[in-house]
Design goal:
Order of helices and strands: EHEHEHEHHEEEEHEHEEHHHEHHHHHHHH
CATH architecture of the domain at 4-79 and 194-240: 3-Layer(aba) Sandwich
Shape: elongated
Helix content: 40-55%
Keywords: Aminoacyl-tRNA synthetase, ATP-binding, Cytoplasm, Ligase, Nucleotide-binding, Protein biosynthesis
CATH superfamily of the domain at 4-79 and 194-240: HUPs
Structural class: alpha/beta
Family: Belongs to the class-I aminoacyl-tRNA synthetase family. Glutamate--tRNA ligase type 1 subfamily.
CATH class of the domain at 4-79 and 194-240: Alpha Beta
EC number: 6.1.1.17
Number of strands: 12
Largest sheet: 3 strands, parallel
Mean pLDDT: 95
GO molecular function: ATP binding; glutamate-tRNA ligase activity; tRNA binding
Function: Catalyzes the attachment of glutamate to tRNA(Glu) in a two-step reaction: glutamate is first activated by ATP to form Glu-AMP and then transferred to the acceptor end of tRNA(Glu).
Distance between the termini: 73 Å
């Protein structure tokens, strides 16, 4: 069977790493099975959905290596949803309700006080035509509920009705429809809640697998019933564990620090973000892959734990360093140029090979390029005995070409002349040459500076 999956974000804000976990689970599943991936914007909320958010989501996914085979907008498919609503109404499976939020809350509390599950009691089914007409005449607009098939004849005499599925992530699952309220599919203003458009779209677009967060497990029972009510077979379902903050709080679009846009702008590598988004909270080692295609080869949805996974930004920093330290010059040259590195300089390639092991993000190389080409930074200034020592040491720079062996020969001569050793020997020279107390190996930096560049840094 061919595989078709979908990712259906709401363009009401920037997606965060938790959203991307779902997108990547679907993308990797599609790659692994040579299937199709649909990017489907849930933009039926016209007041909150913005075109700029949809464009940013598409851009963020492309940055991560997700390239949809098809892009859809639910706002353009209202005719299909209208037709489904009429079909359900004619079948007697969608009924109008005039209950106010206050009435619903009062009934919920009563049921809880009686130790009954707080499900909707289908009071609206008891309304006569005259009562409905009276509500309409008073200006009340109904919301519409889907009648779950959890009874034999009498909808007020529910019975245990189990929905079973073999979850792609969690294995065998069961939901009892008798433990659920009839879901609202249409609001008072005629707009649709997520469930109806989602099911209609999954049917029309041939979605075979729905992979999403495990906060939707219970919803699956009602959705399976809705698929069947519309004459379709339900797709396979998979529910992965969610990501939380390190304190256990759920991620939200209001927390902009973990949005993909913010992580991109902070200089993180897409491979680092993808690896952590997918592999954290699984039985797999959290390590970057050479490509998204390579990650797909070993991707196993079932490796996901059943408990929430905590996203720790320090882990992202660690992954990012690992990736940056392996990036070849050719792959980062454009970004180095944007960071201020003259990539046409003959030393640029060697500079990158030297500096990459000492930075966390590519753009940080831009901080070191002026130190090589213009002179030391002013982070630390030598004084006192260290200043006198450095002046003496510079006079002992070996003759000849500056190469990988120069530093060893130079420090040997300085040690013999001054008697200094260890940190007291090396640190003043590092500060004189770079203006910093840490960084790349000086032995590697000297050939980049050259004899004239070194001599010009004599304090």
């Amino acid at each position: 069977m061919s595989v078709t999956v979908r990712f259906a974000p709401s363009p009401t804000g920037n997606i965060h790493i938790g959203n991307v976990r779902t997108a990547l689970f679907n993308w990797l599943f599609a790659l692994k099975h040579d299937g199709k991936f649909i990017l489907r914007f849930d933009d039926t909320d016209g007041a909150r959905s913005k075109r700029e958010y949809a464009e940013q989501i598409a851009s963020d996914l492309e940055w991560l290596g997700v390239r949809p085979h098809r892009v859809e907008y639910q706002s353009k498919r209202t005719e299909a949803y209208d037709a489904a609503v009429e079909r359900l109404k004619k079948a007697g499976l969608l009924y109008p309700c005039y209950d106010t939020p206050e009435e619903l809350e009062r009934r919920r509390r009563i049921r809880l006080s009686r130790r009954l599950p707080p499900v909707y009691g289908r009071e609206a089914l008891k309304l006569t035509e005259a009562q409905r007409s009276a509500f309409e005449a008073e200006g009340h607009k109904p919301h519409w509920r889907f009648l779950l098939p959890n009874f034999d004849v009498d909808p007020f005499a529910t019975r245990r009705t189990e929905i079973h599925w073999d979850d792609v992530v969690r294995g065998p699952q069961t939901v009892d429809l008798a433990s659920m309220s009839d879901p609202v599919l249409v609001r008072e203003d005629g707009s649709y809640l997520y469930t109806l458009p989602s099911v209609v779209d999954d049917i029309d677009m041939g979605v075979t697998h729905v992979i999403r967060g495990d906060d939707h497990v219970t919803n699956t029972g009602a959705q399976v019933a809705l698929f069947e009510a519309l004459g379709a077979n339900a797709p396979a379902f998979g529910h992965h564990n969610l990501l939380t903050t390190t304190t256990g709080e759920g991620l939200s679009k209001r927390s902009g620090a973990l949005s993909i846009k913010a992580l991109r702008e902070a200089g993180y590598e897409p491979a680092a973000v993808a690896a952590l988004a997918v592999l954290i909270g699984t039985s797999e080692n959290v390590a970057p892959s050479a490509s998204i295609e390579v990650m797909a080869e070993t991707f196993r949805p079932s490796s996901s734990s059943k408990s929430a996974a905590k996203f720790d930004p320090t882990e992202l920093d660690l992954l990012n360093r690992q990736i940056v330290h392996q990036l070849p010059f050719e792959e980062v040259s454009e970004r180095l140029k944007a960071a201020g590195v003259n990539v046409d300089d003959p030393r640029a390639g060697q500079f990158w090979n030297v500096i990459r092991a000492n930075i966390e993000k590519v753009r940080q190389a831009g901080d070191w390029w002026p130190i090589i080409t213009d002179g030391p930074a002013r982070d630390i200034v030598l004084d006192g005995d260290d200043l006198d020592y450095a002046r003496t040491a510079f006079s002992l720079l070996p003759e000849g070409d500056v190469d990988a062996s120069t530093w060893s020969a130079w420090t040997s001569a300085v040690k013999e002349k001054t008697g200094r050793k260890g940190r007291a020997l090396f640190m003043p020279l590092r500060i004189a040459l770079t203006g910093r107390s840490s960084g790349p190996e000086i032995a590697d930096l000297l050939p980049l500076l050259g004899r004239e560049g070194i001599a010009a840094r004599r304090p």
